Amino acid sequence: MLELVVKQGVHATPMSQVARESNVAIGTIYYYFKDKEDILCHIYKMIRKDFGSILIIKSENTNPEQIFKKYWKDLYHYYISNPVAFHFYEHVAKPPIIPLDLVEETKTYYRKHAAFFWNGVKSGILKNIHVTLLVQLAYSNVVAAVDLKLNGVLPMTDAQINEAANASWDAVRHIEK
Questions:
Q1: What CATH number has the domain bearing residue 134?
Q2: In this structure, is residue 177 part of a structural domain?
Q3: Which residues pair with 173 in a beta bridge?
Q4: pLDDT digit string, tens, across residues 5-60
Q5: Residue 121 CB coordination number (10 Å)
Q6: At 58, which helix (H) or strand (E)?
Q7: Do 18 and 28 contact (CB within 8 A), yes or no?
Q8: Do 139 and 72 meet the contact criterion of CB atoms below 8 Å apart?
Q9: What whole-number distance in Å separates Cα of residue 46 and Cα of residue 48?
């Protein structure tokens, strides 16, 4: 279903097609899932959990810049390795399709990641702006780099990936005046 929804859109993907392409009776699908939105919520939760598992802090590394760039590169490589999940997350997995309470519920997968940003602001390492905005500033560049790679605009060499991660770090780090 993931590929169908990404390719065709949510409303253009009937459950009959999902059943046919999955080689499963439609009744079997409805036995496990209430409706199409229920399936999408399960997919969303699975992808969020998967994302959260790649954003693991290595406790031996305490350098905030290195931790940030590791997060950035890990997320970039995850998206490149999982382009369908990337497109689902970027184009489908948004309210109202995904309920806000599920978005909030799945934030638990990112607690350590969020703590990095909260602690960075509190300690003065990161800019003193709302953490949600800070995260968006940091990772919108990941999305841009993935788009450039997946659309064949740039090859995104190791050097380009490092440049993009450095630019993201520069966007969020606190700079003394």
A1: 1.10.357.10
A2: no
A3: 126
A4: 999 999 999 999 999 999 999 999 999 999 999 999 999 999 999 888 887 765 56
A5: 18
A6: none
A7: no
A8: yes
A9: 6
CA distance 68 to 174: 13
DSSP symbols for 119-141: HHHHHTSB-SS-HHHHHHHHHHH
Number of domains comprising the chain: 1
Token pair, residue 130, equals 């709302």
| Adjacent-strand bridge partners of 126 | 173
Cβ-based neighbour number of residue 89 at 10 Å: 20
**H runs (alpha helix) in the chain:** 2-8, 15-22, 26-32, 36-54, 64-81, 83-91, 100-105, 111-123, 131-150, 158-172
Q: Is residue 33, in this structure, part of any structural domain at all?
A: yes
**pTM of the full predicted structure?**
0.90
Q: Domain range spanning residue 15?
A: 2-172
